[in-house]
């Protein structure tokens, strides 16, 4: 299976089109997070970890999320990952998108609607991840860890992403984070879905890129 090149690509190459793709991907990512929180069937693994740390420390969810992001960025150092525009935009755009969608999307308590929100949120999250990471403008802290391990080890995105999600989920659960069926679905499906979608939206160099765009 061919490995998708996710290394940073100069901002000078199609900056407007890649910028729009970046913002769209991040906005969709925030929307998918809001969907999962409103489904009430289990948080994604990173938010399970944030929830557990919040309960232990008494700090706000947002504060813990920022602390975790900084820690993850430190893990980039041995992987020789460099932050980019996408890394910075990740924090701001996703935060705004989550709040905006949660403001208009009510909590769901009917099982059918909860399931629809859960499944839709997981699929949208994978698509959003592929869309914004595929711009090669710099991944967010967590996805940078994924792409860094992918580049350094040669392991598939599916294996790396699923491994990270399962480990984070286990840590969050041990710390008392909220876990549900949606958490399990997300952890097991996000890797394969992201890997399947990445080749469709990732910017490439050379003639092949020109043919696609």
Write the topology of this structure:
Blueprint: H1 15-39, H2 45-57, H3 61-79, H4 85-104, H5 111-133, H6 141-153, H7 157-174, H8 181-201, H9 207-212
Helix pairs in contact: 1-4, 1-5, 2-3, 2-7, 3-6, 5-8, 6-7, 7-8
Describe the structure.
- The chain has 213 residues and is an all-alpha fold.
- Helix content is 74%, strand content 0%.
- The chain has nine helices and no strands.
- It has helices at residues 15-39, 45-57, 61-79, 85-104, 111-133, 141-153, 157-174, 181-201, 207-212.
- The chain starts with 14 loop residues before the first helix and ends with a helix.
Write down how many β-strands occur, each being a DSSP E stretch of 2 or more residues.
Answer: 0
Uncertain regions spanning at least 5 consecutive residues:
207-213
Rg, rounded, reads 17 Å
| Average residue-wise pLDDT | 84
N-to-C CA distance: 23 Å
The residue fraction in helices comes out at: over 70%
What proportion of the residues form beta strands (DSSP E)?
under 5%
For this structure, the quaternary state is single chain
Global morphology: globular
Largest sheet: number of strands, sense, barrel closure: none
- Element order, helices and strands? HHHHHHHHH
